[in-house]
Amino acid sequence: MRRLREAADAVASAAVRWRGPVVFVAVALLLLVAAPAALSPFRLELLAKYLCFAIAALGIGLAWGKGGMLTLGQGVFFGLGGYAMAMHLKLAEAGPGQLPDFMVWSGVETLPAVWEPFRQPWFALLMVVVLPGVTAFLLGLLVFGRRVRGAYFAILTQALAAAFVIWLVGQQGLTGGTNGLTNFTSFFGLDLADENDQRVLYSVVAVVLGLLYLAFRQVVASRFGRLLVAVRDGEDRVRFLGYDPALVKTVAFTLSAISAGIAGALFVPVVGIISPALLGVVPSLEFVFAVAVGGRYTLAGAVLGAVLLNYGKTTFSEHYANGWLYLQGTLFIAVMAYAPKGVIGVAGQVRDFVAARRGRAAPAVVPPARVEEGAAA
Amino acid sequence: MNAFLNQLPIGLSIGAVLLLVALGLTFTFGQMGVVNMAHGEFLMAGAYTAYMLQSWAGRQAVLVALPVAFFVAGLMGLVLERTLIRRFYGRPLDTLLLTWGVSLILQQVARDLFGAPNVQVKAPTWLVGGAEWSGIRMPYARMFILALAVVCVVAIWFYLARTKQGRRMQAVMQNRELAACSGIATSRVDQRTFFIGSGLAGVAGVGLTLIGPVGPALGTYYIVDAFLVVVAGGLGQLRGAVLAAFVLGLLNSYVEYWSDASLAKVVVFAVIIGFLQIRPQGLFVLRSRKLT
Amino acid sequence: MTGVVPGGREPLLRVTGLSVVFDGFRAIDGVDLTVAEGELRFLIGPNGAGKTTLIDVVTGLTRPTEGTVHFAGRTLNGLREHQVVRRGVGRTFQTAVVFEELTVEENVDLAASFRMRLPALLRRRKGRSDEVAAVLDRAGLLALAERPAGVLSHGQRQWLEIAMLLAQRPRLLLLDEPVAGMSRDERERTGELLVEIAREHTVVVVEHDMEFVRTYASAVTVLHEGRVLTEGDMASVQADPRVQEVYLGRSRDTRAAEPVGADADAGREREGVA
Predict the structure, then answer these.
(1) Which residues of B touch C270 (CB under 8 A)?
(2) What is the spatial distance between Cα A189 and Cα A84, in angstroms, rounded to a whole number?
(3) What is the DSSP letter of B163?
(4) Which one of B4, B264, C156, C190 has the lowest number of neighbouring Cβ atoms within 10 Å?
(5) Closest approach of chain B CAs to the CA of C175, in angstroms?
(6) For an interface test with B, which of A143, A160, A167 has the most B Cβ atoms less than 10 Å from its Cβ?
C-alpha cells in the first residue's frame, strides 16, 4: 500500500515537472504540423499575424508581468523593427540603384542616406534588433536612472508612441507617411503570393516564437528573473542587496523592445504592410491589453492573450465593427476588475477550486495568492 | 518678428486647454493615485455639450455651455469615480488600463450618438475675428480660451487656499490617513475632487469648439500631452501645472512653426526627458504618501 | 574612545561632524562616531534621537546636510545605496522587507549574488550553494528554505533579513531594531544569533529594547536629540546621570515631550523602504 502511494506521488511529481515541456511540445506540434495542414491559406496567414503579436507579448509579459513596468510604447519598437525590415524589402524589390515605388510617387529623386545601408540584408536584420534595443536601452537608462517609475514611466512611453507616430506621418518621402510601407512581393527569396511559401513563412514565425519563448523562459527562471520580480515588488529594498534596479529594469525593458522589434519585422512580410496606424497610442495599449487578458504574470499567459484577443478582434469585427469597441472596453474593465491574472489565472482559480472540492491540498506549483497584492502595491 | 509674436496666442491657447485638462488629472492622480485615461472624454463631452446647446441657444451656445458642460462632465466623472475607480485607489497602473476601457466605450457612445464625422460649433459673432495690435494678430477666440483658463485657475486657487473644502482637499492630498483620523470624510473630498477636475475638462472642451471641429476622438489628442503636464509640473501642484502647461503649449507651437509640425512632439518628448534628469519628480514636489 | 584601536589605526567606520536637516528640523546635529573593526556597538536613545537617520546616512538612503562618512579609509558621501553595499556596508530594516513572492532561499541567494555580472545572473541557479545553505542554517531557516517568504512570521522575516545581510558578506553590518515586535523567545534567539555573528563581523545595532541591550551590549553610544550624549560600556552608560535623565529614568515624562521627534523617526521608517 505504501509503495503504491509512493509510486503515485512519484507520478504526480513527474507530472508537475513535465507538464511544462509536454504542453510546449504539444503546442509546437499543433502550430507546426496541425495548423498548416488544417487551415486555409487565409486563416493560416491570420494565425501568423497573431503569432507575431504573441512575440511582442512575450516582451510585455517580461517587462510588465515580471518587472512591473507598464510599457505603453511597444508600438514604437514594433514599428522600428517593422520599418527596418520593410525598408530592406522595398529596396530589394526596387533593384540595385532604383528607388522604392512610393518615393517615386512622392517625387523623391535620390535615395535618402539612411535608406542606403538597408540594401544589405545583414544590416537590415541587425537593425531589427539594434534600433528598438538601443532606443529602449537609452530611454531606460535616462528614465529609470532618475528613479522615474510607475505611472510616470507608463505616461512617458505613451507620449513616445504618440510622438513617434506623428513624426512618421510627417516624413512622407522617408517613411511613406500615413500609408506606410506596403506592396511587398518577396521575402528573402520567398514568393509572398505563393501558398507554399506562405506556409514556410508561417513556420518561420512559429519557430521564432518558440525560440524566443524558450529564451525568455530562461531569463525568467534565471537569477535575473528573480531579481526582476524583486525589483517589481520592492525596488528600494533591492538597492540594499547591492544591485542597481535601474540597470535591471533597463535590461528587461530592452529585451521587451527587442521582442517587439522582431515581431514587427516578421509582421511586415506576413501582413504586407507597416504603417503609423498600427503603432500609435491605441495599438500600443492593445498590445498590453492582450497580455492582461491572457495573464500578465506568466509568459504563456501573454502569448495566449495575444492570440486569443487578436483572434477575437478579427472574428468579431468581421461582423460587428462598432460592437467590438464596446466589447473591448467592457472586457478590459472586467479583466482589470475581476481577473487581474487573466485567462491563465482564471484557469488556476478553477483548478484550485476543483482541487479543494476533492478535499486535496492544492498542488505545490500553484503560485501563492500574494502575486496579485504584490503587483498591485 | 511679427510672425514670432503671432504664434504667441496659439501657443498660449493650447497651453490654456492643456492646463484645464491637466488640472483634473494632477489632482486625481495626486490625491487618489488614479490615472484617468477617460479624462479626455470629459473634454469631448464638454465640446458636444456646446454642440447640443446650439439648437437652443444658437450662436451664444458657447457661453451657455460653459456652466452646463462643467456640470455634465463633472457628473460623468463623479459617476465613474463612484462606480469603478473608487475600488482602485492607489493603484495608478490598474486605473490607467481600466479607464482606457471606459474611454473606448465613451468614444464609441459619442460615435453612435453624434456620428463619426466631425461637427462644428458656431462661435458667437463677437468672438469671430481678432484684434490687431502693432501688427500682431490676436484672435478673439484664442484670447477667450486664455481668459477662461485664467478665471478657472484663480477660482481653483481661491478654492484650495480660502475655502474649508479646498483646505480639506489639500489635507487629503498630503496625508490621507492623517486627514481621515482628523475627522475629514475623505470619500466626500474624493468625490468633490473628481467632480471639479472632470468639470474643468468639460469647460476646456467648450473652449476647444472655438478653435476646431468636434469629434469622438477629440480627447485623445490632448490626453497624452496633458499627462506630460502632470509629469513635468509635479503631482497635485497648481503652480507646477500652470507653468508646465504654458511651457508645453508654447514649445509645441513654436517648434511647429520653426521646423516641422511632425517634429514638435518629438522635441517636446526630448525636452521632458531632459527636464526629468534635473527634476525627476517634476517642477514642484508635494510631500505625500508614496506613489510608485 | 572605543572606536580608536590602540596604535592609531584607522577605524572601519568614521563619521565626522554629521548633520541632517529635514525641513528645518535637525534630525542629526553634529554627530561624530567611530566604529573599529571587529566591534559590536549598540546605538541607543529615545525616539527621535536620530539613530535610524544615522544608519540611513551611512547607507546612502539620506543625504547629509553636513559632515562626512568614511568607511575603510574611503568616503561614502555621494554614493548611491547599492554602491555603499558594494563597498561592504549592509543593513537590515526595522520593518523587515523581504521579497514575499520569492522563496526564502531565493531571497538569500539574491543577496549573495550581487557581485555577479549580468551574463552570470542570466544563468539558472543550480542547487543550493554551500554558502547559502550555511547562512540559512545559521539563521535557523533551513527547514523553510523552499517556502515563499510571504508565509514567514514577523520574527522569521527579521531572521531572513539577517540571513540576507550575512549572505552579502559585508564588512560592516548595521541592524536596525532587530528585535522590535518579537516575542521573548524570539528575542533570545536573535540575541544568540547576534553574539555569534559579532564574533566574526563588525556590527552596529540600533536598539530600543533596553532589556535586550543590557543583556547583549558591551559598547554603547547614546544619542539624544541628534547628538551623541555619551559613549562607553553598558555599566558606565547606565550610571551616567544625563543618560538616566533623558532616557532611562524618565520614560514616562519623555513620552509627553516626544511627539515631534517620534514623528520624524516614524517618517523615516515609512519613507525608507515602503
Answers:
(1) 290
(2) 18
(3) S
(4) B4
(5) 25
(6) A167
Number of domains in chain A: 1
Tell me what percent of the residues of chain B surpass a pLDDT of 90: 66
The span from the CA of C121 to the CA of A227, in Å, is 9
Q: Assign C234 a pLDDT band (cuts: 50, 70, 90).
A: confident
> Which chain A residue has its CA at the smallest distance from B252's CA?
A163
Half-sphere exposure of A355 (CA within 13 A, CB side): 13
- Cβ atoms A124, A87 nearer than 8 A: yes
B28 CA: distance to closest CA in chain C (Å): 22
Maximum C-alpha span of chain B: 59
Domain of residue A102, residue span? 44-279
Please enumerate, as own/partner, the contacts of A358-366 that have beta carbons within 8 Å and a separation of 24 or more.
Answer: A363/A12, A363/A16, A364/A16, A365/A16, A365/A19
Amino acid at A362: A
C-alpha cell at A166: 506623428
pLDDT of residue C264: 40
Give the CA dihedral C167, C169, C173, C176, nearest 10 degrees: -20
Beta strands in chain C (DSSP E): 13-22, 25-35, 40-44, 66-71, 74-75, 89-91, 172-176, 202-206, 219-224, 227-233
Look over chain C and give the mean of its residue pLDDT values, rounded to a whole number: 85
d(CA B288, CA C250): 34
The answer to whether position B89 is within a domain reads yes
Residue A61 lies in a domain: yes
Q: In the numeric block, which cell numbers belong to residue A65?
A: 508581468
The reply to whether A343 falls in a domain is no
- A86 within a domain of the structure (yes/no): yes
Neighbours of B140 (CB within 10 A): 17
How many Å apart are CA B103 and CA B38, to the nearest integer? 4
Query: What is the average pLDDT value for chain B, to the nearest integer?
Result: 90
The domain of B37 spans: 2-278
Parallel/antiparallel/unpaired status of strands C202-206 and C40-44: parallel
Distance from CA of B276 to the nearest CA of C (A): 18
Q: Is the pLDDT of residue B292 over 80?
A: no
Q: What is the CATH number of the domain that holds B176?
A: 1.10.3470
Q: How many CB atoms lie within 10 A of CB A215?
A: 13
Check if the beta carbon of residue A64 is closer than 8 Å to that of residue A288: yes
Look at B260 and A160 and tell me if their CB atoms are within 8 Å.
no
The pLDDT tens digits for A42-58 are: 999 999 999 999 999 99
- SS3 state at B265: helix
C contact test, residue of A13, A241, A365 with most C CBs within 10 A: A241
Q: For C247, which DSSP code? A: I
| Residue B206 within a domain | yes
List C-alpha distances in Å: B289 to A148, B94, B171, B285, C98.
16, 18, 12, 12, 21
Average pLDDT rounded to a whole number, residues B89-108: 91
Is residue B212 pLDDT above 80, yes or no? yes
Cβ neighbours of C23 (radius 10 Å): 6
C263 at interface of B, judged by CB pairs closer than 8 A: no
Residue B286 lies in a domain: no
Please tell me the total count of domains within chain B.
1
